[in-house]
UniProtKB/TrEMBL annotation:
Organism of this sequence: Kribbibacterium absianum
The protein's name in its UniProt record: Amidohydrolase
NCBIfam families: amidohydrolases
Pfam family, one: Peptidase_M20
Ranges of residues in domain Peptidase M20 dimerisation: 212-305
Matching SUPFAM superfamilies: Bacterial exopeptidase dimerisation domain, Zn-dependent exopeptidases
UniProt-listed InterPro entries: Amidohydrolase, Bact_exopeptidase_dim_dom, Peptidase_M20, Peptidase_M20_dimer
Amino acid sequence: MTSPLPPRFPSDEHSSPTEVTHRLLALADELEPYVIEQRRWFHRHPEVSLHETGTTEHICEQLDLLGIPWERPCETGVVATLRGTAADAYDQDGSPRRRLLMRADIDALPVTELTELPFASCNDGVSHACGHDCHAAMLLGALKGLSTMTDALHGEVRAVFQPAEEVSEGARAMVKAGVTDGVDGCFGIHIWSEVPSGKVSCEPGPRMANTDWWRIDVTGKTCHGALPHRGSDAIVAGAAIVEELQTIVSRSVSPFEPAVITVGEFHGGSARNVVAGTAWLEGTVRTFDDETHARIPLLMQRVAEETAMALGCEAHVTQYDLGSWAVVNDAHASKLAWRAARKVLGPDSIGRYRGSMPGEDFSEYLFKAPGVFVFLGCSDPAAGSTWPQHSPHYNPDEGVLVNGTLLGAQYAVDFLEE
């Protein structure tokens, strides 16, 4: 059962600042303009999933300037390696004592930007309306900061700039290419419009939902629109299916288990005076609970078939695909992130957030190694930063980007030191 709110962490004496923390904080004034500059470059030059060519080249250029080696295991996307120089960072065989994977997604959305920002998208119909420009910039900033203190790294950071998160393909491609080989833990961060600026949420347990995609095809009998009794209207049956699908959540799923069934597309008919013989619906399902996740496609098939039958039509779920699995934070990794946030951002930075029903393919990395996915709050009404993710007006509070950079860097230091 999913709890209404994730548990709080108890007070912990190990969250006090360290000498490394002071070194990081001393870099904040230098890192902040760099991260904002990078974010604005990414924002101005967005590229959709699997076409992030210019974005990839820019990241490589920045890594070269930082003196950090990189490789490109996929056509787009980059993997950089920052080697620690602490005395125990590597064993005699040259293997790192520990290795942390830090991931930032880099793709944009097919959404026309309406922000009128001076650095708004220069690519028509494409924009960074989900914050991936911020993620790439924060990871570059964390690498920039950590590259000046490799003596504090007791192991190795593997920084993954991942393509194609929005289409749930990038993480699988990166994992297949071997980026999780030899990894001991994973860290990801998502700037988030439902969390207030200055707060971070890193609670353990489910954080983002299982994401499924489906299609239902409806078959009726075409006839003249003035003689509806001679046919079977697929549009009417499809409309009834739209309504009945919602009873799955309201009547067949426990009220304690979050679930969403969305019909995003409904197509049918060929002429205004013809009863439609075919129609089709497409949409998405979001769940956290494994049992609910498994039951919903079976329930959808039953609803589609029986509702259509009652109206003289046939309907079938002709496609049901998994986009990405739920993101579930490891308890120990979450506590480590909580400690890191308190060190570099202070105890007032810790927020509470239930988790969210959108999907995230960061789950693919968590299948390979335990880790944490942090929500970085960016909602500030005073700055006009209140629009939700995927809105054409989306414009997060840039003032929090250095917070995400410092948090990522501190987490890397603490994880490798364990």
